Amino acid sequence: MNNVNDLLCAHTIRTLSMDAVQKANSGHPGMPMGMADVATVLWTKFLKHNPKNPQWFDRDRFILSAGHGSMLLYSLLHLSGYELSLDELKNFRQMGSKTPGHPEFGMTPGVEMTTGPLGQGFATGVGMAMAERHLAAQFNTNSQKLIDHYTYAIVSDGDLMEGVSHEAASLAGHLALEKLIYLYDSNSISIEGETDLAFTEDVVERFLAYNWQVIKVNGHDHDQIEQAISQAKANTEQPSLIICTSKIGYGSPNKEGKESSHGAPLGEEEIRITKIGYGLDPDSHFHVEQQVYDTFQARAELGTALEADWNKKLTKLEKDDPDLHAKFMAWTNQTYLQDLADVLPVFESDPKGMATRASSGKVINALKDTIPNLIGGSADLGPSTKTDIVGSGSFTQYNHKGRTIHFGVREFGMAAAVNGMMLHGGLHAFGATFFVFTDYLRPALRLAALMKLPSIFVMTHDSIGLGEDGPTHQPVEHLASLRAMPNVLVLRPADANEVSHAWKVALEHKTGPSVLVLTRQNVPTYSRNTENAAALVAKGGYVLSEAGNGKAEGVIMATGSEVQLAMQAQAELATRGKSVRVVSMPSWELFDAQPIEYKNSVLPTDLTKRVSIEAGSTFGWQKYLGLEGKAIGIDSFGESAPFEELYEHFNITTNSIVAYFTEQS
């Protein structure tokens, strides 16, 4: 069934995993032991990668969606020659190591994404496969394929139980992503015991219904595994799920096939007798035979040669079609972003204005030619979120060149796919939905923040201002909750010109996701000059309108649609002889990052009379208001009514601001 050398490779993965978990006294040995045979076949016979250059653009992507089995991936990376030493394996799960408990993107060479929250590797891989297909459609020619790689993942029972896997699998099958191959570790064990306690669906029929090719193999038979991967690669019309029947804790006399091998060390004695069963030295720890290194690194050396061939293709393209070559280099290096300031739309002042979702749509379409790899769409809300890229065509199984993606009502799957496209490289991707549905996609947003991934999310219908749809669709706590999430850039622009610069900020932001929070209802477009230029959005907060006599006695802070209420209150207070400054604060995160001198220039410490107004939770505003200030907002759920009535009902009004300053006299 398996030749001696390949079996030794698989057993080495098992012993490295057992030893590392035992030394750390923490971890998950069972899954790496169960999937070592599958991983050995994939990594020594199929995977196209180059450990000397983990970022080679045309490499295959490999995701360990079952991230709890991280020692499987770390063993593979070490054996293949990535910069991951044996000492790092010995330092598994320890502070400062490159081998954390779950794989983390950016920390360990060769790790394509952060995994651990089950289902997200599965869903993110779909985005990677979408990116590959779009780029192939853009850059492959009749004479050569510049983009030609696969996305592989090892997925678990837990991945398939998570709801996001249903969303992602449905989308992948609908789009017929033929270069997507998932290897399912079907070991029938979860933490609580056998999976049939909670999971009895027919996985084969489920994935056939999704339009996937389904292949079943013995997950410990190398020949069957090899044939199945070859069969999957030969299918040019469907994604493939290879169901690998495996035994968790394979080879452990007392823990094979049991939940006890899932999330705890096997124990020294059990490891000894397991190694004896493998025919290996029971007293040797973290031992690797040279022939194992040779086997894995032979594949890696092939990857070096394949990259050299690919570089020749790139050179040939430069000679044969310099324009296409220049386009490819611009897409992969993002050099087009240097020209954004010259093409941002400028909107004339207008008291009637427009909804910020509408101005956002205009910005997207003003930038579409300057940023030709801007791609994205919505969760079945294109007409409402205004995110269609007009004239670009839809991304479908028949048209991979299309730039408008129809994600369907799959918010979580959409956000994970956007992350996958961004991880893949070569694209600038966004996803859109109503702001209240950040609750559906939040785990993918959090993972983007953790990976420092510059995904963009466009969230419209941002408050009770959406009106009659009522509290089920009216976000209240969402701004506060996203501001509480580390490394998320939240932008709630006040008018069309702030929207324009908010998009610029988001596109240029490199160290985390950006969320553009936009209105359903119209808001005025304000008059601008050098003192209140919309470009000041990049500072997070700025003086939109100075006190009439230049000597403010108080400050009104606002975001988004409530800035107009602040401006109206300023005008009303002026008729009563009171001068106040209006500060637009589209992004707390950007404002907090400014030098103290700038922050004090916007919010002088001697101006203690302060009001904030925002149609959402008041949580968090106190850090800007101080002890004397007042936060006007909504700390309950909304109601179903026209939006004008809702603002009055919840006292989010000009009169509420005016009352604060007049009562303070």
What does this structure look like?
The chain has 25 helices and 21 strands. The chain has a 7-stranded parallel sheet, with helices on both faces. Helix 1 crosses helix 3 and helix 14 (356-367) packs across helix 19. The longest helix has 31 residues, at 290-320. The radius of gyration is 28 Å and the shape is elongated. 54% of the residues are buried.
Write the topology of this structure.
Layout lengths: L3 H21 L5 H16 L15 E4 L5 H11 L5 H5 L29 H20 L11 E6 H5 L1 H13 L4 E7 L2 E2 L2 E2 L8 H7 L3 E6 L3 H13 L5 E6 L22 H11 L11 H31 L1 H12 L6 H4 L6 E6 H12 L6 E5 L3 H4 L8 E2 L8 E3 L4 H14 L3 E7 L3 H14 L4 E5 L17 H7 L4 E3 L4 H13 L5 E4 L4 E4 L16 E4 L9 E4 L4 H13 L5 E4 L3 H5 L3 H7 L7 E4 L8 H4 L4 E3 L10 H7 L4 H10 L2
Parallel strand pairs: 1-2, 2-3, 3-7, 6-7, 9-11, 9-12, 10-11, 12-13, 13-15, 14-15, 18-19, 18-20, 20-21
Antiparallel strand pairs: 4-5, 8-16, 17-19
